[in-house]
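ok posting inputs for the flavin-adenine dinucleotide job
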Amino acid sequence: VAYDYQLVIIGAGSAGLSAADLSAGLGFTRVALVEASDRLGGECLHSGCVPSKALLHIAKQYGHEKDPWGHVQKSISLIQNRSDNDEHFQDRGVSVLHGRAAFVDAHTITLDGQRRITSKYYLLATGSRPRVPDIAGLSDSGYHTNETIFSLDATPATLAILGGGPIGCELAMAFALLGTKVSLIQSGPRLLPREEASVSEAVRARMKELGVQLYPNTDVQRVHKTADTKVLTLQQDGAQQTIEAAQLLVAVGRQPVLESLDLEKAGVQYDDAGVHTNRYFQTGQRNIYAVGDCTPSPKFTHLAGHQAGVALRNMITPLFKKSGRYLDVTPWITYLQPEIGRIGMTEAEVKDAGLPHIVLQLNLRDIDRAITDDAYEGYVKAIVDKGGKLLGATVLADNAGELLTPLCHIYYHKQSIASLATTVIPYPTFASGLNLLAARYASETTRQNSLFRLLTRKWRTPN
Ligand SMILES: Cc1cc2nc3c(=O)[nH]c(=O)nc-3n(C[C@H](O)[C@H](O)[C@H](O)COP(=O)(O)OP(=O)(O)OC[C@H]3O[C@@H](n4cnc5c(N)ncnc54)[C@H](O)[C@@H]3O)c2cc1C
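and the output
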């Protein structure tokens, strides 16, 4: 059958752009990138990673002394102009088509219900949107989500945030540093519930220091609007109270964007969590793959990009498909002050799973550079199995992302943490602390090793 394209990528966000970038190098010749909006980049560029990190940068660096909104927009435009635009991809041989895709059958889509396109393969990368809870009066009162909050042109005096997960916490901290009086409302008992309990506690303490008013175990019962504020009625531990804020931000979860794709016509299965795929990122329809936020997987830009690479590789080598199982564990950073880096399991999860393990912890004050830089609140914690393989790690540090990266390397390459003890790392960097962490593992295990004990008996035997 002669198809118009060999591959059509639907959605030009993190996953779709990675796929488009990789396609020529992998040998695809006729590729189209379909995007419903008039701009490429998706959530990460326009309403996710980029604006949130630009806002946090100004907030952490300058507090309320500098207006952040110009920097937020400038960061988006610089990336848009550099690479996330139609010309960039057209120059690489990818046809960029703007229009909303909907399936007619497993090989045919329409754009905005009109132009018909056929393709051998499809990659679904349509992303997710914020989930908005059903709260009385919420829509009439007006609220922000991540899709609108970065278009503010002035920092609000007061802000109520619903949701104590990564997005709620990052924005609570950014606005608090910028001088906004923030109220952070969460239904559960602790902030960042997926992290180590000690991390949640450190974040709670830092939020308090910044004057964030915390409402744990709290539900919002209704919202109403006055001339210039939103009034929230809260139910906390059985008691009712009201709070007021100039702006309200909803950050309570995500839902996949799938409804206008007519996936039924293509025979693709999905549910509220996203498109169903196998470990090769292939849907029930063998020529249609799905990656990124429109699937049930964790929602991160770096993960979406890696999944896209595996999916494309599987389309071109169908007999030697690569499993994406290794991506079931993904690292992430929550960009607070200090940052939180994480890969794999927490200590509690390792214990619950009954896995034999060793916990290695290095406090930042044991690293010389942390002392010279006056940044010694925090730690690196690694949980390893008896052979030194990483089961999980958490870093609490201003530059947690950089410190977590070598740990990600040994995780994915299944190396023992001992390999970091024999890696020469420049002094005085924060990363040189990883030498110390690995040395702790080495000394812990060699002391227990019977051959080592035998060989060193002479030195250990008192004269
Ligand atoms: C506030 C915030 C901060 C974040 N910070 C980080 C971070 O620091 N690090 C990190 O890794 N992740 C972060 N994320 C998550 C990250 O933004 C997402 O995981 C990532 O953008 C998902 O990429 P995607 O390609 O799957 O989807 P998206 O980026 O959402 O792209 C989907 C694209 O598909 C298009 N589309 C949808 N339907 C159709 C259709 N029918 N036809 C054609 N096009 C369609 C959309 O218009 C969109 O452009 C953050 C998210 C938020 C909300």
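notes: The radius of gyration is 25 Å. Residues 301-316 form the longest helix (16 residues).
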